[in-house]
Amino acid sequence: MENKRNYQRELDSIIKEITNKGIRPTLLLHSCCGPCSSYVMEYLNKYFKIKLFFYNPNIHPAEEYERRLEAQKKVLESLPLCDAELIEGEYDPKAWFEAVKGLEKEPEGGKRCQVCIRLRMERAAQQAVKLKADYFATTLTVSPHKNAPYINSAGEEIEKTVTVPYLVSDFKKKNGYKRSVELCRIYDIYRQNYCGCTYSIWE
């Protein structure tokens, strides 16, 4: 797995290229939660037409899922000049539990998390194809608790199986995570205190 690449610099290069062309491509952006999406949308909205894909069958319990979905909607309503469209993916915890079967005792950040991330990114890529988007990406790299090299590696592997290119990122750069915290404070956005799944509650 690549771990020495500067993904932010690569993203800067892509943004410069599309800006020079005077275009605003469509980006299918997978969102893990409202707080993480806040900074990412503020940052990318002027460069991309964002279709925000909220697909998170890992979130437990169902009441928490609804709470996070409402927080996501509030972010979209609150951010100025944001014209992103929200697309809610299917909430199917049964499929998620099946995907991580046998990995229940893995530590947070281990193989179970990798399977979880890849599952959601694969679904995002499929949605990008369906909507004929120009790129697909995920907000997950804004978190200091997530492995950006793994996420980008997974995205580039998935890219080979679909017709839509993956947009590399490391959104925690440029104080992205810090800005997401600020935005949540400004707009009174709910910030969860665990990643999402039942196993992360225990940890």
- Percent helix, as a range, is 40-55%
Mean pLDDT: 96
Instruction: Describe the sheet with the most strands.
Output: 4 strands, parallel
Strand line-up across the major sheet: 3-2-1-4
How many individual helices? 8
Tally the beta strands.
4
Radius of gyration based on Cα positions: 16 Å
Order of helices and strands: HEHEHEHHEHHH
Low-confidence stretches: none
C-alpha end-to-end distance: 26 Å
Describe the structure in your own words.
The protein starts with 6 loop residues before the first helix and ends with a helix. The chain contains eight helices and four strands. The chain has helices at residues 7-21, 34-44, 62-78, 93-99, 111-130, 148-159, 176-187, 198-202; strands at residues 26-31, 49-54, 85-88, 135-138. α2 (34-44) packs parallel to α3 (62-78) and α2 (34-44) crosses α7 (176-187). It is an alpha/beta fold and 203 residues long. Helices cover 49% and strands 10% of the residues. It has one domain (7-202): Rossmann fold (3-Layer(aba) Sandwich), CATH 3.40.50.620.
